[in-house]
Amino acid sequence: MDLKSFVRLPVSVPGLMLALVTSSVVAAPIPIDSLSRLPDISSVSMSIDGTQLAALIAKPGSGNTDTAVATWDLNNMDKGPVITPSGDRMKFVAAIALKAGRFLVAARQEWTGSLAGCGEGKAIGSTATFISKVYLTDSTHKEFNEAFTDGSSRRFGVSEQMERCLEIAGSAELVSPLPLDPANVIVQRANGLTLQADYFLYNLETTDATLLMRGGRSDQPALFHPRDGKLLVRTQLESVSPTEYEQRVLILNEATGEFDIHPELTTLLSDRLTLQIEGVDDATGKFYILTDKFSDHLQAWAYDPKAQKFDTEPLVAHGEY
Question: What's the structural domain count of the chain?
């Protein structure tokens, strides 16, 4: 290479000097233990009532190779955390502080067996996977009970294999923490016979569950009131042609108790529009909706269910974002 060719290289003099210096330094290899170490603390959350803290921590004495669940009483921090380490088989992977003195803890364990095509399982032979469980516990950690389930699937004739499939897929989960309710949350449970999700108002203190809605393949809840869990909005997916589906929004009519279809909120799936109902204003009865119906960008709009129309201007919008 001649001098002219060297000068034409797109490298600055400081950058070239740095490259020459660093190329002569041999970096020490990173120990594999450093890459595999679990963090000292993760999955930190505070309860809605501001009295409890939960986190996933490295199991004491494990050298950051295993996990433990830790919870704190924020009114008595000098007491320190209550810690429960993972077991030999079931490992804690997340922790959430809810309310009413209750904590949600997720765990999983390795499992290999025949699933006969269930979910992502092979039709023949064995599948290596994980079984995940979600538990409820309190500040003492004395009991970890499977969360939000009623344990009745076997009584309804669900096979052992189907129960295993539901375990792997997750048979119950938290839908809404209902931040304005002191004890209740909204959960969904997988129905072992219909394989659809049913939605319940679940009391964390008593474990009583009240059915709010039975989900279907095309009928799903879209908004529960954050104060009391009442179902306010549903969505339905309907076929309008052999190649087209329509998503309809149904809003509770307080006067009749029925859910009315709102054509202004109906969209065709092929239009690929976003229409997310995020909340309701108790004072006006209007709904907060995120949509790109009126712009290339997502905007926040207020929608009046009585007049069945959007406001004339968005609540929040930006011309470029």
Answer: 1
